[in-house]
């Protein structure tokens, strides 16, 4: 006869709550950025033509919906170059510049912020003075002066854009590093004899990485707009290379006769910067413990 008095075991684990889905606009931003990244990575595969290929018989051909054909879905310019092919390679170039410049600014600013937090005193005052000087200097005027004086090259252009908003990372890294250094885990590692490189690289940086990542997502669209503006003025990406900004600058001369040359890259810039901004705001709300 079975023992009916055996104790019953009840599960005390509460069911885990499912994480809510991101808002529709954030989902749109993620999908659009995924499309842009895929386009940049697969540009050589998905491009219907080379971005320098000429089709003189179809110069200024309109896109589909305005009387064009599927031979050139987004139309052509006055040299017969396919707008879709140039747009695909422009996306690759603009994203490469934006990613490279954002990483350079983040590395420079974070490194200087850590130096100010570690040495304090004179070093901190020097870093803060550089931060204030950089924040007060109009970056666009500085960029125009440097590019006009030294000429333009892709490496110089990316490094110059990398100095945009580095002071933002320096201030954030300095403040968070000072706060983290006063907490128990940093003091304990320091007492164990860890070097400053190990303390800041292995312990402090991972704890402040979420804030720095959010700052990068907010600076990324600013870099895209700066690149577009400088390329629009003829001081950015030089022919035969192409970028979103250079396409807009090139298409302004044909705005009345062939507006599709300008509209395609302009809408791409708008949607890309909007998507990155939406993603940055969402990440800030998700990673900030005071907003949970």
Q: What does this protein look like?
A:
With 292 residues, the chain is mostly helical. Helices cover 66% and strands 0% of the residues.
List keywords for this structure.
292 residues, mainly alpha
Q: How are the SSEs ordered, and which strands pair?
A:
Elements: H1 24-41, H2 43-46, H3 83-119, H4 121-136, H5 139-150, H6 154-162, H7 166-181, H8 184-191, H9 196-232, H10 244-251, H11 260-287
Mean pLDDT across every amino acid position? 83
Radius of gyration: 25 Å
Q: What characteristic shape results from the CA principal axes?
A: elongated
Largest beta-sheet characterization? none
Order of helices and strands: HHHHHHHHHHH
Structural class: mainly alpha
Percent helix among the residues?
A: 55-70%
Number of strands: 0
Distance between the termini: 55 Å
Give a brief rundown of this model.
By secondary structure, the protein is mostly helical.
């Amino acid at each position: 006869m079975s023992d009916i008095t055996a104790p019953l075991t009840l599960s005390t684990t509460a069911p885990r709550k499912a994480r809510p889905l991101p808002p529709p606009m954030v989902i749109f931003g993620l999908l659009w950025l995924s499309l842009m990244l895929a386009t940049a990575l697969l540009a050589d595969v998905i491009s219907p033509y080379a971005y320098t290929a000429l089709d003189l018989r179809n110069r200024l051909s309109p896109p589909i919906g305005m009387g064009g054909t599927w031979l050139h879905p987004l139309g052509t310019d006055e040299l017969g170059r396919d707008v879709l092919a140039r747009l695909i390679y422009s996306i690759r170039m603009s994203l490469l510049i934006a990613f490279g410049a954002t990483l350079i600014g983040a590395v420079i600013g974070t490194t200087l912020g850590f130096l100010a937090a570690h040495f304090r005193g004179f070093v901190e005052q020097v870093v803060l003075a550089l931060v204030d000087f950089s924040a007060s200097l109009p970056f666009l005027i500085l960029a125009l002066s440097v590019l006009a004086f030294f000429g333009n090259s892709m490496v110089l252009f990316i490094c110059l854009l990398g100095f945009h908003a580095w002071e933002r990372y320096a201030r954030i890294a300095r403040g968070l590093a000072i706060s983290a250094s006063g907490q128990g885990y940093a003091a304990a590692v320091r007492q164990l004899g860890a070097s400053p490189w190990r303390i800041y690289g292995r312990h402090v940086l991972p704890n402040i990485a979420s804030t720095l990542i959010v700052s990068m997502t907010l600076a990324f669209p600013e870099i895209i707009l700066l690149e577009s503006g400088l390329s629009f003025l003829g001081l950015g990406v030089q022919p035969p290379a192409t970028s979103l900004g250079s396409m807009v600058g090139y298409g302004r001369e044909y705005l009345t006769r062939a507006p599709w040359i300008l509209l395609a890259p302009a809408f791409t810039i708008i949607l890309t910067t909007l998507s990155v901004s939406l993603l940055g705001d969402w990440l800030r709300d998700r990673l900030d413990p005071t907003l949970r």
